[in-house]
Design a protein that fits this description.
Layout: H1 4-11, H2 19-24, H3 29-32, H4 37-48, E1 54-59, H5 65-80, E2 84-88, H6 91-104, E3 108-110, H7 119-122, E4 127-131, H8 132-135, E5 156-159, H9 165-172, E6 175-178, H10 184-192, H11 195-200, H12 204-211, E7 219-220, H13 223-244, H14 249-252, E8 259-263, E9 267-272, H15 281-284, E10 289-294, H16 300-306, H17 310-313, E11 327-331, H18 340-354, E12 360-364, H19 367-370, E13 378-379, H20 384-393, E14 401-404, E15 419-423, H21 431-439, H22 444-458, E16 468-474, H23 476-483, H24 485-488, H25 493-507, H26 512-523, H27 527-538, H28 548-565, H29 569-582, H30 588-605, H31 608-621, H32 643-651, H33 660-668, H34 677-690, E17 694-696, H35 698-702, E18 708-711, E19 716-722, H36 734-750, E20 755-761, E21 766-767, E22 776-779, H37 781-799, H38 805-818, H39 823-830, E23 832-833, E24 835-836
Parallel strand pairs: 1-10, 2-4, 2-5, 3-4, 5-10, 11-16, 12-14, 12-15, 13-14, 15-16, 19-20, 20-22, 21-24
Antiparallel strand pairs: 6-9, 7-8, 8-9, 17-18, 18-19, 22-23
Length: 838
């Protein structure tokens, strides 16, 4: 009798290395049918470039990247007869990959916490599937440089969803003292240590609001204060480290001098400038590192986080087909003709209604933002997410489920998710992400990250070309962001086509019934919709050009960090200055960021004058950074062009003009007495820009002058002090009025050619007996609301038309007159003279 098992073993001695040939020999290949073109292209290209240390492979969401990653892993094992590690973001995805490997017939084993590494993995008989956290932690079983464990050597590492790993890796290197439980008192002690330092740079009010949980922002401790005090803080933390952060402490205890210290209402966190990835020789020395990434992802973070080479990352392997692109009806309720006050209720009712038959999921940026769904959906966090996803997939529960900050790693096929709601712009998952989003606000450096998160989020409900889903985009900041032309260009062209298609549909929806009827066309496979969608998407290309300047900036950050760690402070500083000099087109916010890094290291080096000079330069490029200890010289505002022209210029930055009202509402939402001083001032500053003026916060930026200054084309200026948080019956005091008078004297010196109007935003028009304010104007909250109401009409009318620019400017001029929004009419219609109390 023929021994087929013996013949098979003899044949297997020559195992295939080519990943496509390997696929053909899989025992389950016939059941998988065949590789998609995008998968085959990626595997062919990887095989040609397999000896490169770092390679990025981009595949569409739902484009079958798990199979590609597993085939590459098996190919390396067959070639090298060694060990390959497959990393993924969380245990839920680990289980999915293990299941897929079994389905494909590829040998794979799961990493087990607390147990020795599997012998099949160590002997090259199976790929090991684990989370990023399993490798990157201070007690890693793969070994840590300088630790007691042997270093595990690998022949290859597959990094699945590499674009999601940056926050995960950052968390592995971050010590956080939480403002709760047994560390609450320590949080208070650590934050109060720096209260005076924030007073020195004019941020004490913001600091107080944050630690009192009135403001959800993030502040960085000034590095000059941190570098003088970090040793004592390290001593204090070392006492609780074994209990509170055993897996992090070994990685960061020697790097406090090259770390950020960040404060939020929830925690006091310490995190290095960049993750010290070389502490893990298993990763650093691995000859083949394959980053499986989303099509849209900004790969600069692969360089910044993992130290990958610019040359390799700038040449990703990307698909040229639409394989895996699902059908999505993307709608924006805020752009419909439905009354804004009814939108949230309608969307919640819709979610409940659809969940009677299909799976419904809501994605929000944070747990806090998820709370508004408490009355209509189940919020799932942590380990609960896996159970909720399983319930959706097995069709045991349709939700609605809310998943805070889970834009990746959730596969909801078919009916498990037919309605996906993305509520709010995903700004980040940890303190560093939120801090960086603030520092880089509006720049391509951060918008590319937002684009990736939004696109990945939209992909949770369509897991392949045969899948379909309705996506509702909610939240003023998301609608405003996605409407900007510069941000739409960051999305893949297929998503862009779906967005433009959906936006056009949204404009035509006039009420709740029409919204339900439109959604039903996708849910119940209306032929006209399916055909129309297919034609629109078929006409779109798929490729996205790498953002080379972002990649170069990331490379400079990584090289700068290495030089700093090695003690070459002078070379690190020189490198940054040369890079900025050689790249005049570099975004201002990025220039500022790099210069502040250089200023920090100059201070660490002991060259304080150099540090102060660099920090002055950094702040001049990016005012979201640390204000120097010595207030920088004042920079005058440029006189604006014609008011109507400025307004239309701003409007035209929006590809989807109806997204501009969302931006307006995002600004005015904070113009209420309950907002913090910082929030209110920033919103008044933005209001001036929307009015077509030049606007600035002199006291915040330069430590002198008014809270807000508006400069107009008519040589009129508004010098504005803000007292929005006073009780409604309290009069204007002598000290408050004196503050405005000082600001006015400053203004007259800086802008002698302008006519200035002294204005205080105040709850009433009453002064105390000791105040003489005959030429001082009050803008009361009621009057401010009247101004906002008329501005809302202006923004809505201009956003609702597609007139040529010249005609639109003329229309704007007429509206400014009709709505009393010219400088002269603002003075006469919205401002009142203060009166002494009786």
């Amino acid at each position: 009798m023929v021994d087929f098992e013996r013949l098979r073993k003899q044949r297997s001695l020559a195992k295939p290395i080519d990943p496509i040939e390997l696929f053909r020999r899989l025992p389950r290949a016939s059941e998988i049918n065949d590789l998609w073109n995008s998968q085959a292209e990626a595997l062919k290209e990887w095989s040609k470039r397999r000896d490169e240390k770092d390679l990025v492979i981009k595949l569409n969401t739902g484009g079958g990247k798990t199979l590609v990653g597993l085939l590459i892993a098996q190919s390396i094992i067959n070639e090298k007869h060694g060990s390959v590690l497959y990393l993924s973001p969380n245990n839920q995805i680990v289980d999915q990959i293990i299941s897929k490997a079994k389905e494909y017939g590829i040998p794979a084993v799961k990493f087990s916490s607390g147990q020795d590494l599997d012998e099949k993995f160590l002997s090259g008989q199976a790929v090991l599937i684990s989370t990023y956290a399993a490798l990157f932690n201070g007690m890693s079983r793969f070994g840590v440089a300088g630790g007691s464990r042997d270093i595990i050597k690998l022949d290859g590492i597959i990094l699945d969803d590499a674009h999601t790993a940056f926050s995960e890796i950052r968390d592995r290197f971050t010590v956080s003292v939480e403002n709760l439980g047994e560390t609450k008192d320590l949080y208070s002690e650590l934050t109060q240590t720096f209260r005076g330092d924030f007073a020195d740079i004019g941020r004490q009010g913001t600091f107080d609001d944050i630690v009192a949980d009135r403001d959800k922002g993030v502040l960085e401790v000034p590095y000059w204060s941190w570098l003088l005090k970090f040793q004592e803080i390290r001593r204090i933390l070392s006492e609780i480290a074994p209990k509170n952060f055993p897996f992090v402490w070994p990685l960061v205890r020697d790097s406090f001098n090259i770390s950020h210290s960040l404060i939020s209402s929830n925690s006091f966190s310490i995190t290095p400038l960049l993750p010290m990835i070389d502490m893990f020789p298993t990763f650093a020395d691995c000859p083949r590192r394959i980053y499986m990434s989303a099509t849209v992802a900004d790969d600069s973070s692969i360089i910044r986080t993992f130290g990958a080479s610019l040359e390799s990352v700038s040449k990703p392997i990307a698909p040229s087909s639409l394989a895996g692109v699902g059908e999505r009806m993307i709608l924006a309720p805020a752009l419909m003709q439905i009354p804004k006050k009814d939108l949230e209720t309608i969307c919640k009712t819709l979610a409940k209604s659809i969940s009677k038959e299909f799976g419904v999921v809501v994605l929000t940026p944070s747990k806090i933002s998820a709370e508004k769904w408490n009355d209509s959906a189940q919020i799932s966090v942590g380990d609960e997410v896996s159970n909720s996803v399983a319930a959706l997939v097995k069709r045991k529960n349709n939700g609605p489920f809310v998943f805070p900050n889970r834009y990746d790693g959730i596969d909801l096929v078919g009916d498990s998710c037919r309605l996906l709601i993305i509520d709010g712009l995903p700004t980040g998952s940890n303190l560093y992400d939120i801090y960086r989003a603030t520092v880089f606000e509006g720049s391509a450096a951060i918008n590319a990250t937002f684009a990736q998160r939004v696109e990945q989020g939209m992909g949770r409900g369509t897991r392949g070309a045969g899948d379909h889903c309705i996506v509702l985009l909610m939240g003023k900041n998301l609608i405003s962001w996605i409407s900007l032309s510069s941000n739409l260009k960051l999305m893949t062209s297929s998503t862009r086509s779906q967005l433009e298609l959906g936006i056009n549909i949204s404009h035509d929806i006039g009420n709740e019934k029409e919204l339900k009827d439109t959604i039903a066309k996708c849910l119940y496979r209306d032929t006209s919709w399916v055909t129309y969608h297919a034609e629109v998407v078929a006409d779109s290309a798929i490729s996205i050009e790498p953002q080379l300047m972002n990649l170069k900036s990331a490379e400079i950050e990584r090289h700068f960090f290495k030089l700093t760690k090695d003690g070459h402070y002078d070379k690190a500083i020189d490198m940054v200055e040369k890079f900025i000099s050689d790249n005049p087109g570099l975004e201002s916010r990025v220039k500022g960021w790099l210069l502040q890094l250089a200023a920090r290291i100059a201070f660490l080096w002991g060259n304080v004058p150099k540090s102060e000079t660099l920090q002055q330069q950094a702040f001049s490029f990016n005012s979201a950074l640390l204000r120097p200890k010595t207030a920088p010289p004042y920079v005058r505002l440029f006189s604006p062009s014609k008011q109507s022209q400025n307004i239309i210029n701003m409007l035209e930055t929006y590809e989807l003009k109806k997204g501009y009202p969302a931006h307006f509402e995002e600004v005015v939402d904070l113009l209420v007495p309950e907002s913090t001083s910082n929030q209110f001032e920033e919103s008044i500053n933005s209001l001036g820009l929307i009015l077509g003026f030049s606007s600035q916060r002199p006291d915040h930026l330069f430590g002198k002058g008014p809270d807000v200054l508006w400069i107009t084309n008519e040589k009129i200026a508004f010098i504005i002090e803000i007292k929005s948080r006073k009780k409604s019956t309290n009069p204007l005091t002598k000290a408050e009025h004196g503050q405005l008078l000082e600001s006015f004297v400053w203004f007259q010196k800086e802008y002698p050619e302008y006519k200035g109007y002294k204005i205080i935003i105040h709850p009433n028009v009453v002064t105390s007996d000791s105040v003489t304010a005959a030429d001082t104007y009050a803008l009361t909250i009621n009057q401010l609301n009247y101004l906002i109401m008329n501005m809302r009409k202006l923004v809505a009318d201009l956003s609702a038309t597609s007139l040529p620019k010249a005609t639109l400017v003329e229309k704007c001029e007429k509206l400014l007159e009709e709505l009393h929004l010219t400088p002269e009419l603002i003075i006469t219609k919205y401002l009142s003279i203060f009166k002494a109390e009786k």
